[in-house]
Write a structure and sequence with these properties.
Elements (H helix, E strand, L loop, with lengths): L4 E7 L6 H9 L3 E7 L5 H9 L3 E4 L7 H8 L6 E3 L24 E2 L9 E2 L8 H12 L3 H15 L7
Parallel strand pairs: 1-2, 2-3, 3-4, 5-6
Helix pairs in contact: 4-5
Length: about 160
């Protein structure tokens, strides 16, 4: 007898197709999953969608023009928004930064004050920036994207819609 795990949180970096092959070979072992912090190709993203997986987007997913093209093509019913806190913030040098509207005051760790973020550390509240950037890239409203991502989260974790 083989154990079946319900949900998977998957991470992939520069595996040259091995990741998709391994996931495909083992897809029957888990019911759902999200490929977190997605930064790979459009073709690979489409293969992962065909495997009925969700695609997680954060600041690392919004660095370069190539990343923006991929994000633009993620189906709304397959997208997840994330921060990967304390890493992967959207930096001013990132291609996706031009869509960010919400900013937070931050100070260096040594000068930190209550009510401010620590400079250079990504925090969960920055999810709003990811949502703004992705909505801008997709040409839809922040509300439409947030609603879709929320529904996807409920669906992936098999949660009731009334929570």
């Amino acid at each position: 007898s083989e154990m079946c795990i319900r949900d998977r949180y998957l991470h992939n970096r520069n595996t040259n197709g091995d990741f998709v092959r391994i996931v495909r070979e083992n897809r029957h072992r888990f019911s759902s999953g999200v490929v977190h912090s997605y930064t790979d190709s459009l073709e690979e993203m489409k293969e992962l969608i065909e495997l009925d997986l969700y695609i997680g987007v954060n600041g690392c997913s919004l660095k370069k023009a190539e990343n923006i093209e991929v994000v633009k093509n993620i189906p709304l019913d397959r997208i997840m928004l994330e921060t990967d806190s304390p890493y992967c913030e959207i930096r001013k040098s990132h291609e996706g930064y031009k869509y960010v509207k919400t900013t937070f005051n931050a100070k260096a760790k040594e000068k930190h004050q209550k009510g401010m973020l620590v400079k250079g550390r990504n925090e969960p509240c920055n999810t709003v920036q990811v949502c703004e950037a992705v909505a801008g890239i997709m040409g839809i409203s922040v509300k439409e994207l947030a609603d879709a991502a929320y529904k996807n989260t409920l669906r992936m974790f098999n949660l009731p819609e009334d929570i």
